[in-house]
Amino acid sequence: MWALGLMSGTSMDGVDAALIESDGERVRELGPWISRPYPDGFRRRLRAILGGQGDVAGVERELTEFHALTARELLAAWGRPPGQVGVVGFHGHTILHRPEAGRTWQIGDGPRLAAALGIDVVNDLRQADVAAGGQGAPLAPVYHRALAHDLPRPLAVLNIGGVANVTVIDRSNGMLAFDTGPGNALIDDWLLRHTGRAMDEGGAVAAAGRVDTARLARLLDHPYFDRVPPKSLDRDDFSAQPLAGLSLADGAATLVAFTAAAVQRALVHVAEPPGRWLVCGGGRHNPALMAALARELGVPVEPVEAVGWRGDALEAEAFAFMAIRHLLGLPISFPGTTGAPQPMTGGRRHAPAGIASA
Questions:
Q1: Which class would CATH give 2-137+313-357?
Q2: pTM recorded for the entire structure
Q3: pLDDT 10s digits, 73-92
Q4: Least crowded by CB within 10 Å, which of 75, 81, 217, 339?
């Protein structure tokens, strides 16, 4: 069936929406996709409720309406009747992720979105996994494996959003996945705090700086790196406080080195190191970060476009894929990806009339 996926990531830059046709095992066809940035005012309001404080209900309404507008725009561009879409996969936006306390919170009103679009919506895709003792993240590995079915193994797919996570697919098609450490979040926050700009466009600021190795060592002296997977992070689990006093460029360069070194440290948990790394998420647009990864890993590090995947649409596609799997009763999380006790099907389904089912 055709499914529409919607993703709002930890970078808080906007909504990605994508259409795919799939049987829940393989992707038959990729439809159009779009990305729509959040207005600056809404991004500030969204940032203000991280952790579950402030006007969560008001921001959730705004977020859901923005997703509905984005989905309608994509459907209009598709040029086919919306009735040809069987389901919408709606990630919402994570404002709190504390799986060790049994909590993960993705805002986004599933019944409201279903009513707005007239299509069944599957959301709350992380809750069941966390309730069963899993990390609730990362969830995209099942989609990475579907896309990579004809690629040589072992293969790593690295997603660099606000947080970075890796999927390692081994020779027997098994998956190991976990958050490696910070992605773009610390870099983006550093630029915002010092310049008012939302990101280091093209990695230009980091490229002009020098890595402070002593402060990098302090950043890497974090207990998260000693934990054995499965493990996952909240966007704000790391802090740039050790970089206080550094210049704008040196701080950015050191944070880029931190993200790359954290990825390299992930290899200690991998039985057979991947011979190739494919990178998706916004981080692949940062040449300074991609160069740092290549130095750290010592093997080919390429954007996913090198194998014909759509890097900016990939996570939205993944949630469309997971929504189909929900309808078919197929698992979306596994012991090797989230630490769930067994393969699990997550999510709640909402009909346009607002009736929810498990």
A1: alpha beta
A2: 0.92
A3: 999 999 999 899 999 999 99
A4: 81
